[in-house]
């Protein structure tokens, strides 16, 4: 008996020992985790671009806004004070917000807006994410100027899965109107027509050498001969996918949307609005000045777009100084044609997760969502001035033929949490109400969607697959679809109509990339999967802001699980009221 007790005691002792070790390791990792406090003052600031000064809405007077730097595991506490004349919210794009949906930020989805003169403190922890995310206003078109980088370094004591770069530089690609962007979208809403396109693209807030009154402020990124640096590229443009390239230099892609990827080499990037890409660049060219440039990938046939090019300069420290009075222009990169879908596709389909991943296999919710534009007939009694879309219509957009309408008296999360009736319904269709040739010639009878605030309910822990399918209604184009509160695996993408019999063979179930924004190909489809492990109300929408304005969105309700750690936290006391 004694021997028996001894034989039990020994494994128990070692179990206890490892348990204590684990506790210490967790405590150490928690002790390393920091809380970062920031104040964001939303205010009107004079900003001069393209020879004209505009009263732009900014954070702390900065355009682009401040870069926030944290480590994986850290907590952010950001007090936002609204001193501008517009309602505002801030969205932390790509942050999982586990159980903290109240801090996600989309207006009337997870909170009521912060009114002029009001304030709200966003509190959330970064869990298991490393790389580049960003933050932006999620109210009307304010994100045109209210945005900045969110850099997540590896956990204290750990390192990148690639050699540590000498320098790290956020590269924020933006879009500038020589006008007030709020006036631009208000005019479009009044007329029913498409809004005016932007007048410039920017890199870190500056248009660059190819625009009037701009070359004195062009962004300069420094590099030393032989060093390898990390560029954290973010597409913060409002309405445009962008190609990005640096003359005579290649990129090694190492991350996207705060997930590491299998490194691959490319000379051009394509990012949809909302997407981020981390690339290594090595100073291996003759010391000189080289342009980095971005311009549109415009996939919608016949639709107007801003066809200008923004530049910054990659400058070698040892670059020879030109003789007095001699101007040597930097070398210019070759960029793809505006409609080069082949290059865009080759890039997006190169992504793989850094290692083998556990993809959800037994699917509980098999969903099929069409995404695309539409036209509403002119309402009875409306003047022709309010129906200036094609042939006297008004532009609209929808998912599964439902054009999403934001509530105005409560946020959806509040209504869900408090059981307030009449704010939304839970009958968003799991599949298109009518099956049709999505990418062919679509009957005009399908061009006008219904409007509504329809949500789709998911049980906690449900394994979800969604076929995101573009349509050829009005015009087909590439749609960057972003899901709040989640990352998802992109299993495959393709052109034409999705065929469940043959296209499932293309699914990557080994190492698909983990993203928060999927570029759904023009006249094509993407298939995504995720596990519904984060309770709350989460909007999924096109990240071309003109399309979300028109209703290209829907939202999921994810129910609480069983334990407290599977339930939404209680709302903060300073949550704004409508």
UniProtKB/TrEMBL annotation:
<keyword id="KW-0732">Signal</keyword>
<comment type="similarity">
    <text>Belongs to the multicopper oxidase family.</text>
</comment>
<dbReference type="InterPro" id="IPR034285">
    <property type="entry name" value="CuRO_2_LCC"/>
</dbReference>
<keyword id="KW-0560">Oxidoreductase</keyword>
<dbReference type="GO" id="GO:0048046">
    <property type="term" value="C:apoplast"/>
</dbReference>
<keyword id="KW-0964">Secreted</keyword>
<dbReference type="InterPro" id="IPR001117">
    <property type="entry name" value="Cu-oxidase_2nd"/>
</dbReference>
<dbReference type="InterPro" id="IPR034289">
    <property type="entry name" value="CuRO_3_LCC"/>
</dbReference>
<keyword id="KW-0325">Glycoprotein</keyword>
<feature type="signal peptide">
    <location>
        <begin position="1"/>
        <end position="33"/>
    </location>
</feature>
<keyword id="KW-0186">Copper</keyword>
<dbReference type="InterPro" id="IPR045087">
    <property type="entry name" value="Cu-oxidase_fam"/>
</dbReference>
<dbReference type="Pfam" id="PF07732">
    <property type="entry name" value="Cu-oxidase_3"/>
</dbReference>
<dbReference type="Pfam" id="PF00394">
    <property type="entry name" value="Cu-oxidase"/>
</dbReference>
<dbReference type="InterPro" id="IPR011707">
    <property type="entry name" value="Cu-oxidase-like_N"/>
</dbReference>
<dbReference type="InterPro" id="IPR002355">
    <property type="entry name" value="Cu_oxidase_Cu_BS"/>
</dbReference>
<dbReference type="InterPro" id="IPR017761">
    <property type="entry name" value="Laccase"/>
</dbReference>
<feature type="domain" description="Plastocyanin-like">
    <location>
        <begin position="168"/>
        <end position="318"/>
    </location>
</feature>
<dbReference type="InterPro" id="IPR008972">
    <property type="entry name" value="Cupredoxin"/>
</dbReference>
<dbReference type="InterPro" id="IPR011706">
    <property type="entry name" value="Cu-oxidase_C"/>
</dbReference>
<dbReference type="GO" id="GO:0046274">
    <property type="term" value="P:lignin catabolic process"/>
</dbReference>
<protein>
    <recommendedName>
        <fullName>Laccase</fullName>
        <ecNumber>1.10.3.2</ecNumber>
    </recommendedName>
</protein>
<dbReference type="GO" id="GO:0052716">
    <property type="term" value="F:hydroquinone:oxygen oxidoreductase activity"/>
</dbReference>
<keyword id="KW-0052">Apoplast</keyword>
<feature type="domain" description="Plastocyanin-like">
    <location>
        <begin position="428"/>
        <end position="560"/>
    </location>
</feature>
<keyword id="KW-0439">Lignin degradation</keyword>
<dbReference type="InterPro" id="IPR033138">
    <property type="entry name" value="Cu_oxidase_CS"/>
</dbReference>
<keyword id="KW-0479">Metal-binding</keyword>
<keyword id="KW-0677">Repeat</keyword>
<comment type="function">
    <text>Lignin degradation and detoxification of lignin-derived products.</text>
</comment>
<dbReference type="Pfam" id="PF07731">
    <property type="entry name" value="Cu-oxidase_2"/>
</dbReference>
<dbReference type="GO" id="GO:0005507">
    <property type="term" value="F:copper ion binding"/>
</dbReference>
<feature type="domain" description="Plastocyanin-like">
    <location>
        <begin position="42"/>
        <end position="156"/>
    </location>
</feature>
<dbReference type="InterPro" id="IPR034288">
    <property type="entry name" value="CuRO_1_LCC"/>
</dbReference>
């Amino acid at each position: 008996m004694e021997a028996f007790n001894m034989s039990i005691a020994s494994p128990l002792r070692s179990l206890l020992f490892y348990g204590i070790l684990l506790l210490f390791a967790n405590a150490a990792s928690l002790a390393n985790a920091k809380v970062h406090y920031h104040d964001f003052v939303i205010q009107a600031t004079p900003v001069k671009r393209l020879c004209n000064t505009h009263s732009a809405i900014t954070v702390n007077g900065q355009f682009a806004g401040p870069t926030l730097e944290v480590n994986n595991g850290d907590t952010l506490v950001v007090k936002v004070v609204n001193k501008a004349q517009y309602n505002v919210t801030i969205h932390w794009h790509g942050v999982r917000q586990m159980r903290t949906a109240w801090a996600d930020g989309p207006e009337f989805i997870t909170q009521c807006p912060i009114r002029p003169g009001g304030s709200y403190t966003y509190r959330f922890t970064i869990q298991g994410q490393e790389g580049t995310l960003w933050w932006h206003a999620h109210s009307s078109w304010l994100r045109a100027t209210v945005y900045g980088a969110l850099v997540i370094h590896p956990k204290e004591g750990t390192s990148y899965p690639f050699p540590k770069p000498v320098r790290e530089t956020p590269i924020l690609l933006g879009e500038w109107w020589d006008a007030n962007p709020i006036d631009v979208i208000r005019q479009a809403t009044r007329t029913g027509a498409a809004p005016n396109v932007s007048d410039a693209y920017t890199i870190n807030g500056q248009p660059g050498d190819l625009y009037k009154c701009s070359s004195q402020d062009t962004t300069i990124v420094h590099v030393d001969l032989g060093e390898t640096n990390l560029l954290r590229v973010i597409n913060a443009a409002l309405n445009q996918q962008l190609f990005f390239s640096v003359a005579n230099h290649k990129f090694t892609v190492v991350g996207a949307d705060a997930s590491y990827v299998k490194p691959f080499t490319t000379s051009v990037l394509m990012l949809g609005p909302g997407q981020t890409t981390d690339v290594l660049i090595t100073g291996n060219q003759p010391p000189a000045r080289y342009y980095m440039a971005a311009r549109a990938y415009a996939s919608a046939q016949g639709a107007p777009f801003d066809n200008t090019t923004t530049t910054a300069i990659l400058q070698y420290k040892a670059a020879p100084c030109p003789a007095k009075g001699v101007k040597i222009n930097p070398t210019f990169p070759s960029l793809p044609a505006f409609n080069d879908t082949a290059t865009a596709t080759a890039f997006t389909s190169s992504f793989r997760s850094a290692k083998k991943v556990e993809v959800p296999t037994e699917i509980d919710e098999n969903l099929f969502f069409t995404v695309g534009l539409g036209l509403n007939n002119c309402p009875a009694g409306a003047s022709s001035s309010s129906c200036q879309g094609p042939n006297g219509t008004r532009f609209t957009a929808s998912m599964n033929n439902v054009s999403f309408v934001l509530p105005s008296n409560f946020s959806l999360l509040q209504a869900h949490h408090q059981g307030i009736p009449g704010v939304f319904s839970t009958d968003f269709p799991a599949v298109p109400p009518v099956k049709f040739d999505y990418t062919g010639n679509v009957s005009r009878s399908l061009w006008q969607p219904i409007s509504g605030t329809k949500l789709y309910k998911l049980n906690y822990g449900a394994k979800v697959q969604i076929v995101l399918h573009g349509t050829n209604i009005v015009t087909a184009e590439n749609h960057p679809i972003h899901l709040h509160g989640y990352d998802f695996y992109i299993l495959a993408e393709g052109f034409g109509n999705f065929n469940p019999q043959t296209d499932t063979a293309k699914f990557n179930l080994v190492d698909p990339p983990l993203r928060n924004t999927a570029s759904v190909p023009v006249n094509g489809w993407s298939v995504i999967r995720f596990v519904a492990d984060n309770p709350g109300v989460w909007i999924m929408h096109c990240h071309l802001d003109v399309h979300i304005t028109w209703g290209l969105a829907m939202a999921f309700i994810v129910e609480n699980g069983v334990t407290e750690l599977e339930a939404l936290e209680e709302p903060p006391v300073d949550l704004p009221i409508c």
